[in-house]
Design brief:
The chain has about 180 residues and is of the alpha+beta class. It contains 3 helices and 10 strands. Helix content is about 20%, strand content about 35%.
Amino acid sequence: MIDKILDKGYCKVDYEIDFPYDEFKNKIFHNNEYWNVEMYDWTPSAVAAPGPNCLKWCLDMFNMNMEILDDPLYKDTRNCKASILKYNKGYIREHTDRGMLSFLYNIYPGMYLKINEQWEELDYGLFIWLGDIGAKQFNKPAMEHKVECKNSRWSLNYFSVPSNIDYPWIIPENNE
Protein backbone atom coordinates (compact mmCIF):
# COMPACT_ATOMS: atom_id res chain seq x y z
CA MET A 1 0.00 0.00 0.00
CA ILE A 2 2.89 2.40 0.65
CA ASP A 3 3.77 2.17 -3.05
CA LYS A 4 0.27 3.36 -3.96
CA ILE A 5 0.53 6.27 -1.51
CA LEU A 6 3.95 7.26 -2.85
CA ASP A 7 2.87 6.95 -6.48
CA LYS A 8 -0.46 8.79 -6.30
CA GLY A 9 0.07 10.90 -3.19
CA TYR A 10 -2.76 9.13 -1.39
CA CYS A 11 -4.78 5.93 -1.49
CA LYS A 12 -8.36 4.98 -0.74
CA VAL A 13 -8.99 1.90 1.41
CA ASP A 14 -12.12 -0.21 1.69
CA TYR A 15 -13.16 0.44 5.30
CA GLU A 16 -16.35 1.23 7.19
CA ILE A 17 -17.13 2.04 10.80
CA ASP A 18 -20.26 3.21 12.59
CA PHE A 19 -19.58 6.87 12.98
CA PRO A 20 -19.28 7.68 16.72
CA TYR A 21 -21.43 10.82 16.92
CA ASP A 22 -22.64 9.97 20.43
CA GLU A 23 -19.04 9.55 21.62
CA PHE A 24 -18.23 13.15 20.74
CA LYS A 25 -17.67 14.78 24.15
CA ASN A 26 -15.20 17.10 25.88
CA LYS A 27 -14.63 19.07 22.74
CA ILE A 28 -12.11 21.74 21.93
CA PHE A 29 -13.51 24.57 19.81
CA HIS A 30 -11.34 26.58 17.44
CA ASN A 31 -12.70 29.56 15.55
CA ASN A 32 -10.29 31.80 13.68
CA GLU A 33 -9.21 32.46 10.11
CA TYR A 34 -7.25 29.18 9.96
CA TRP A 35 -9.87 26.78 11.32
CA ASN A 36 -13.45 26.64 12.53
CA VAL A 37 -13.99 23.21 14.03
CA GLU A 38 -14.97 21.30 17.15
CA MET A 39 -12.56 18.52 18.03
CA TYR A 40 -12.23 15.67 20.47
CA ASP A 41 -8.76 14.21 20.34
CA TRP A 42 -6.84 11.60 22.28
CA THR A 43 -3.57 9.71 22.13
CA PRO A 44 -4.32 6.03 21.49
CA SER A 45 -3.36 3.74 24.39
CA ALA A 46 -2.22 6.70 26.52
CA VAL A 47 -5.72 7.70 27.57
CA ALA A 48 -8.99 5.89 27.16
CA ALA A 49 -10.83 6.54 23.93
CA PRO A 50 -14.26 8.08 24.49
CA GLY A 51 -16.25 4.98 23.48
CA PRO A 52 -16.23 1.64 21.66
CA ASN A 53 -16.36 2.97 18.10
CA CYS A 54 -13.58 5.47 18.80
CA LEU A 55 -11.52 2.71 20.37
CA LYS A 56 -12.19 0.51 17.33
CA TRP A 57 -11.10 3.39 15.07
CA CYS A 58 -7.82 3.80 16.98
CA LEU A 59 -7.04 0.09 16.98
CA ASP A 60 -7.93 -0.38 13.31
CA MET A 61 -5.77 2.56 12.22
CA PHE A 62 -2.89 1.52 14.51
CA ASN A 63 -2.95 -1.97 12.96
CA MET A 64 -3.19 -0.60 9.42
CA ASN A 65 -0.31 1.79 10.10
CA MET A 66 1.80 -1.12 11.38
CA GLU A 67 0.96 -3.18 8.27
CA ILE A 68 1.86 -0.33 5.92
CA LEU A 69 5.09 0.75 7.59
CA ASP A 70 6.18 -2.48 9.34
CA ASP A 71 8.40 -0.47 11.68
CA PRO A 72 8.83 -1.05 15.45
CA LEU A 73 9.06 2.73 16.01
CA TYR A 74 5.23 2.81 15.66
CA LYS A 75 4.48 0.20 18.36
CA ASP A 76 4.66 2.92 21.02
CA THR A 77 1.62 5.09 20.34
CA ARG A 78 2.61 8.10 22.43
CA ASN A 79 3.12 10.17 19.26
CA CYS A 80 0.02 8.92 17.48
CA LYS A 81 -3.07 11.07 17.58
CA ALA A 82 -6.69 10.31 16.79
CA SER A 83 -9.59 12.74 16.65
CA ILE A 84 -13.20 13.26 15.78
CA LEU A 85 -13.80 16.58 14.04
CA LYS A 86 -17.14 18.33 13.69
CA TYR A 87 -17.50 21.23 11.29
CA ASN A 88 -20.66 23.30 11.55
CA LYS A 89 -20.48 25.54 8.50
CA GLY A 90 -16.78 25.28 9.23
CA TYR A 91 -13.40 24.98 7.61
CA ILE A 92 -9.73 24.19 7.95
CA ARG A 93 -7.59 26.14 5.50
CA GLU A 94 -5.00 24.58 3.19
CA HIS A 95 -2.40 22.62 5.13
CA THR A 96 -0.31 19.48 5.35
CA ASP A 97 -0.25 17.25 8.42
CA ARG A 98 2.79 16.86 10.63
CA GLY A 99 2.96 13.07 10.87
CA MET A 100 4.29 10.20 8.79
CA LEU A 101 0.87 9.06 7.56
CA SER A 102 -2.57 10.62 7.90
CA PHE A 103 -5.69 8.47 7.92
CA LEU A 104 -8.99 10.26 7.30
CA TYR A 105 -12.42 8.65 7.28
CA ASN A 106 -14.70 10.84 5.22
CA ILE A 107 -18.46 10.34 4.81
CA TYR A 108 -19.54 13.90 4.01
CA PRO A 109 -18.84 16.38 1.22
CA GLY A 110 -16.39 19.21 1.76
CA MET A 111 -12.98 17.51 2.04
CA TYR A 112 -10.47 18.44 -0.68
CA LEU A 113 -7.02 17.19 -1.70
CA LYS A 114 -4.65 19.13 -3.93
CA ILE A 115 -3.80 16.69 -6.71
CA ASN A 116 -1.61 17.88 -9.61
CA GLU A 117 -2.12 21.48 -8.47
CA GLN A 118 -5.93 21.11 -8.68
CA TRP A 119 -8.33 20.87 -5.73
CA GLU A 120 -10.40 17.69 -5.94
CA GLU A 121 -13.24 16.86 -3.58
CA LEU A 122 -12.97 13.46 -1.95
CA ASP A 123 -15.77 10.98 -2.18
CA TYR A 124 -16.55 8.73 0.76
CA GLY A 125 -14.27 6.27 2.52
CA LEU A 126 -10.91 5.95 4.24
CA PHE A 127 -8.04 7.90 2.71
CA ILE A 128 -4.34 7.70 3.62
CA TRP A 129 -1.62 10.16 2.60
CA LEU A 130 1.85 11.37 3.56
CA GLY A 131 2.34 14.01 6.21
CA ASP A 132 5.40 16.23 6.60
CA ILE A 133 7.56 13.58 8.28
CA GLY A 134 6.61 11.00 5.62
CA ALA A 135 7.39 13.51 2.88
CA LYS A 136 10.91 13.98 4.26
CA GLN A 137 11.49 10.26 4.72
CA PHE A 138 10.29 9.27 1.25
CA ASN A 139 11.36 12.46 -0.58
CA LYS A 140 7.82 13.02 -1.84
CA PRO A 141 5.47 15.95 -1.23
CA ALA A 142 3.12 15.95 1.74
CA MET A 143 -0.53 16.00 0.72
CA GLU A 144 -2.14 19.44 0.90
CA HIS A 145 -5.78 19.32 1.94
CA LYS A 146 -8.55 21.54 3.25
CA VAL A 147 -12.13 21.37 4.44
CA GLU A 148 -14.96 23.68 3.47
CA CYS A 149 -18.56 22.89 4.33
CA LYS A 150 -21.82 24.75 4.15
CA ASN A 151 -23.61 22.45 6.61
CA SER A 152 -22.49 20.11 9.35
CA ARG A 153 -19.88 17.47 8.57
CA TRP A 154 -17.76 15.08 10.60
CA SER A 155 -14.52 13.22 10.02
CA LEU A 156 -12.34 10.75 11.88
CA ASN A 157 -8.58 11.27 11.79
CA TYR A 158 -5.53 9.29 12.85
CA PHE A 159 -1.96 10.52 12.57
CA SER A 160 1.19 8.45 13.09
CA VAL A 161 4.66 9.61 14.10
CA PRO A 162 7.59 7.36 15.04
CA SER A 163 8.47 7.20 18.74
CA ASN A 164 12.02 8.50 18.19
CA ILE A 165 10.64 12.00 17.43
CA ASP A 166 9.70 14.44 20.20
CA TYR A 167 5.99 15.11 20.69
CA PRO A 168 4.98 16.80 17.40
CA TRP A 169 1.47 18.05 18.23
CA ILE A 170 2.13 21.50 19.69
CA ILE A 171 0.10 23.98 17.63
CA PRO A 172 2.05 27.10 16.60
CA GLU A 173 0.62 30.25 18.14
CA ASN A 174 -0.42 31.73 14.77
CA ASN A 175 -2.66 28.67 14.09
CA GLU A 176 -4.49 28.54 17.44
